[in-house]
Amino acid sequence: MEKVRYGYHGKILRVNLTTGVCRSEEPGDRFYRLYIGGQTLALHYLLSEISGKIDPLGPENVLVFATSPLCGARFSGQGRHTVAAVSPLTGGLADSQAGGWWGAELKFAGWDAIVVTGMSEKAAYLSIEDGVAVLKPAEDLTGKSTGDVQDILKKRHTSKARVLQAGPAGEKMVRYACITNELRHFNGRGGLGAVMGSKKLRAIVVRGSRREIPVKDPDALKVISMWFDRCIKNHPAVSLHQELGTPKGVVPLSVAGMLPTYNFQDGSFSDAEKISGETMNTLLGAGGHTCFACAVRCKRNIKGKIGDFEVTDRYGGPEYETVGLFGSNLGVSNIAAVGACNERCNAHGIDTISTAGTLAWAVECFEKGLLTTEDTDGRKLAWNDPATYLELIDDIALKRGFGAVLAEGSLRASRLIGKGSEKFAMQVKGQEFASHEPRGKWGVGLGYAVSPTGADHLQVAHDPWFEKPGDYSTDANWVDLEDLSAVGLIDPVPAESLSPEKVRLFVYLQQIWGFHDILDWCIFTAVPEFRAISLNQMVEVLNSVTGWRTSLFDLMKAGERGLTMARVLNLRLGLTAKDDKLPERMHEGMRGGTLKGHKIEKDALEKAIVLYYGMMGWDSDGVPTPAKLHELNLGHLVQ
Amino acid sequence: MMKIRARLYGTARRFSNKRTPGIWEGELPERATVAELITIIGSSRREISAAAVDGINVSFDTVLDERMDIVLVTAVGGG
What we know:
The structure holds two protein chains of two kinds. Chain A is of the alpha+beta class. Helices cover 38% and strands 12% of the residues of chain A. In chain A, the strands form five sheets. Chain A has a six-stranded mixed sheet with strand order 2-1-6-3-4-5, sandwiched between helices. In chain A, strands 8-7-12-9-10-11 form a six-stranded mixed sheet. In chain A, strands 13-14 form a two-stranded antiparallel ribbon. The longest helix of chain A has 21 residues, at 552-572. Chain B is built from one helix and five strands; from the N terminus they run ββαβββ. In chain B, a hairpin with a 2-residue loop joins strand 3 (48-53) and strand 4 (56-58). Chain B is globular. Chains A and B meet through helix 8, helix 9 and helix 11 of A and strand 3 and strand 5 of B.
C-alpha cells in the first residue's frame, strides 16, 4: 500500500535527454523535511551532480523544476515554482521563481519536481499526463513564438493542459532567455530559457487529474485561508496592488529619487506620471488577472494604442521592473511603447530586465561615442526611441547582427566592445540590475552585491520599510518592523546605512526571503509591505498542509541553508568573493533627481560584505566554514 | 481658508476624494503645512514617505498655498 504523504508526493521525475529515458525517483521523507522544496530542493540536485566548472550550455548542466509542499494548496500565493540550473549569464547559480498555474498542475499530476539532465539530439518537448511522462518530437515548434507554441500544444493535448516553455530566444541560447508558463508568468532571470534551449527541450506540457494536493488538516488550512482572504480585502497595500499592479511604484519611486533613469544616471524621471500604473489603467484599460488560487490578483491585462505604439492583451501587461527599465531607464515616456516592448520580449522568451538593461548600456555607450553606427548595423542609438528598441529586441532574440552582441548581456558585450564600456554595464556577476536604485537603499546594494544569482532585487525587503519603528496599533498592521519582531528585529535602521545593525537586518531578511523561495510562497502576500499574513501564520499554514511540527526558527534555518548551499555551488563553479561587488557607478554621486549626489561608499560596502560573511558563518573569503555546514545539516558539503 | 489639491500615490491613494481617484481636494487653513495636509487627508507622517511641491521634494514643514502642485507618496516596492 502506498504511503500517505501530505503536501508532497515523494516523487521526483528524472528526465535524461541524452538517452530519452524518463523515470521516477523517490528520495524519502527525510529529504523533504531537510530540503522542503523550491530553491533548496533544486540546489540539492545541482550540488549532487555538478562538482566543478561546467559549460552552462553543455549537456552537463542540470535543470531542475521544483515545487514546494505548499504548491497547489488552495491558499493565496501558492501557485509558484522554482527553476534552477547553472546560469549561462553569470556562470553561477540561476534560480528563479514564477507564478502562474504550471507548478500547481505538476503537483496535480503527482510530481514534486523534474530533474532534467543531458541533451537531446533533436528538438523535443516533455508531455506529462499524471504518472506518464514522455518525450515527444518538437521540430515543428522550432522558431515559433511562445504564443504560437502554446496554441499548438494546447490543441494537441487539451486546452486544460498547462504549458511551460522556452521561446525562440531560448532555442538561440540568448544568455538571458527566460522560461514562461501560460505566456504571462516567467522564470525570468539567469538565462534558464537558454539552458532549456541548449538541451533542445522546448516545452513541458502538464495535465494532472488530481485537483487537490493531500492536506493533513484541511479544516485548519481553511480557517487561515478564509481569514487571510478577508484580511486581503481590507489591506491598503494589497488593495493598491490589485488596482494598479506592481507599476503602482513608478511615481513614488521617482519622487523619492530611486526610479532608475537613463541607465541609472538619474533617480527621478520627469515623465514618470506617463508610465505609471495609474496611467496604464486610464489609457490602456488595465485589469487584473491572477495565479492559481490567489485572491491578490496583481497581474495586469492591457490593450490599446498610444501614438505609434500598440499593445495587445496576449502576453499580459508589464510589471514594475519592465516599466522602470523599458520606461525611465531608457527615457521612454509612452506606456504603450513599454507594453509593446514587454510583449515582444515575451513572444521571444527573453528576460525584460536584462534586455532593457543591456539596451540602456548600449544607448549610453553610443551617446559617449564608445559605439558607432559601424557597430550597430547603421542604427543611431538614443534615449526614448522605442521603435529602434523593438527592432533590437527581434535582433537579440534571433542573434542577428548587433543583436548577437547584445544577446551576450551587458558585461560580455562590454568586453567585446572594450574602450572602457564595462563601466556603463549596470550588472553584478553578469546579471543586469533590476529596476531598483541602490544608492537610496543601501541594503538593496548589499543584496545585489552578495546575491548568488547576480543583481537580484528579491534578496530582501527594501530598506525604506525599516526606517521607522514598528507600529503595534490596529490600524497600521501592514508595514514595518512589527512582524519582524518575531525574529528579533526591533530597531529601525536608516535606508542609507551599512552599519552592523543594517547588516544584521539584511542577514535576517535574506533568510526570510530565502524561505519564501524554498516554500515557493509569493512575496506579495506575506512580506513587509504586503504583510497580510504573519511569519508565524506562515508556519501554521505549512504545518496544516504537511502535518510537520516545524517552527519559524526552522524556516529561518532553511533560508540560511539555501543561501549557504548556493554559496558552495558558486564556489565550485569558480565564483569568489571578488565577484561580490557593485559597478563603479554605484560609488559615484547620482547625476540628477531627488537623491542627486548620493552614493554608496566603496569602503563601507566592502566592510559590510565581510561582516555579512561573518554573520553567515563564512570565512573572510566568503567560504562557508565546516562548523556552519555541520550546523546546517550540510556536513556532506565539507571539502 | 485656502483650496488645496494634492495628488496621492502609493497607499495614500485610498484617501482620494471618491470621484477622483488619486486626487484629494479640500480646504486648509491659510499657511497650513504639508504635515497638516497629511493629517487632514487621514494619513500619518509615518505612512507618507515624501512630499513634492511643483516637482521638487520638500520637507513636511513646508507652508502650502493654493497654486501649488502637491504630491504625497508612500514607500512602495517593485516586483
